[in-house]
């Protein structure tokens, strides 16, 4: 009898353990799917006249100094279309490899003298087989030796948290762990240094914080593409 | 004619080896006012007119090495004058160009050689013919705002027909001309969109002045023929002269590929026997680059 009385008890304890284990397992499985404890930065970049600035790179780094882990850098593309670099500004994380496909029906000769990456892709059509590795943070100015007006920029960021503003001068950086950060802005025509734009920013664990930056812009005196009449002769 | 045929043959050969070329390089519309079309000295002979010109050019470019390129450019231009219909013309030309860049980047010096042959078709048969030109140009972008250039040019013009002589011992092919010129120029961008261009050209060679009978010009001329384009009893006189041309222009970029420009040109010619004329040219130009 006792044995009989005990016998049903044992399975009951086992079922409870199994139920708790199952719940724990479900909880563990459910954890990654739960809303992340992360905040967003809604950044706006304007010039001194109040006009939105497109193609500005907004970078945030934790105030502690460590850039933080992000997705591993992959392969990006800097295209050449209608004798222009597309995009005009390409922000990438240090360690990214960049392909330079040529989608024009003429050959281009891409080069850069920039300390962050000095390289040259002599005359080519199509897509070069080997991408170029950008492993040093900084700004890389691109040119084409056949078409002097072609200018492009690759911004190599030490931080995984960066993005480029659109035509409305706005960009959102999402999924940032809550905490204190420093926000910086860079633009091809930025007046002064990128460091001068640095501003502290507290990112909440959930929700978003707004960050507005005003920058000065220098004139863009790149080589002119439009034809000019009256070149000598009589 | 021979040079033109050779250029045409070369064009054919090059075109068969290179298929990737834009059909057009540029397209332009220009209004030009020349206050002394006749290149005349006396007020009674000076005639000015407004002209509308439309032009386009295009052709393949062959990038030989990273620094050297060869281009073959066809040009087509039509000009319509407001009053002097005889000056209306359609020109079609072919130019072979070689360009070398001495290094990498927009600030390295560049050198260009161009040879061209242009067919000239006017409403007045006297002016029909061929124009052959050879030019060498060196240029350099000095700073992001300033670019400099210098060139030398040689021209020869051959007319199709030789009219009957007016004076037995003076030839009548007034539009058989040759000249040499040298020039310098500078572009200054005072704003990212605005470019100011300055130019100065020395020109030594034949000019054609159309006037009524004129003894000093007759004595200085090397060819004479009736030129009814500017009225009855007017004659075209060919004479060797020294000409200086000063030009200034301002060009505004419209988008990335087009420009609108205003230009002014002052010409001053001097020939033997104290003959001198001056003229002013005003231009308004729209250009689109493909």
Task: Identify the notable features of this structure and list them briefly.
heterodimer; A: 234 residues; mainly beta; Immunoglobulin-like; 2 domains; five-stranded mixed sheet; four-stranded antiparallel sheet; 1 helix; 12% helix; 40% strand; globular; disordered N terminus; B: 290 residues; Porin; 14 strands; 8% helix; 60% strand; Methylamine utilization protein (chain A); Cupredoxin (chain A)
Could you describe the 3D structure shown?
The complex is a heterodimer of chains A (234) and B (290). Chain A is mainly β and 234 residues long. Chain A has two domains: 38-66 and 167-219, Carboxypeptidase-like, regulatory domain (Immunoglobulin-like), CATH 2.60.40; 69-158, Cupredoxins -  blue copper proteins (Immunoglobulin-like), CATH 2.60.40. Chain A contains one helix and 17 strands. In chain A, the strands form five sheets. Chain A has a five-stranded mixed β-sheet, with no helix packed on it. Chain A has a four-stranded antiparallel β-sheet with strand order 13-2-15-16, with no helix packed on it. In chain A, a hairpin with a 2-residue loop joins strand 4 and strand 5 (84-86). Chain A is globular. Chain A starts with a helix and ends in a 19-residue tail after the last strand. Chain B is mostly beta strands and 290 residues long. Chain B has one domain: Porin (Beta Barrel). Chain B is 8% helix and 60% strand. Chain B is built from two helices and 14 strands; from the N terminus they run αββββββββββαββββ. Chain B has helices at residues 2-17, 215-220, and strands at 26-34, 49-58, 61-63, 68-81, 89-101, 110-122, 129-141, 146-159, 177-191, 194-211, 223-226, 235-254, 258-271, 275-289. A twelve-stranded antiparallel barrel of chain B has the order 1-2-4-5-6-7-8-9-10-12-13-14. In chain B, strand 13 and strand 14 (275-289) form a beta hairpin. Chain B starts with a helix and ends with a strand. The model of chain B is unreliable at 15-20 (pLDDT under 50). The chains are: A mainly beta (234), B mainly beta (290).
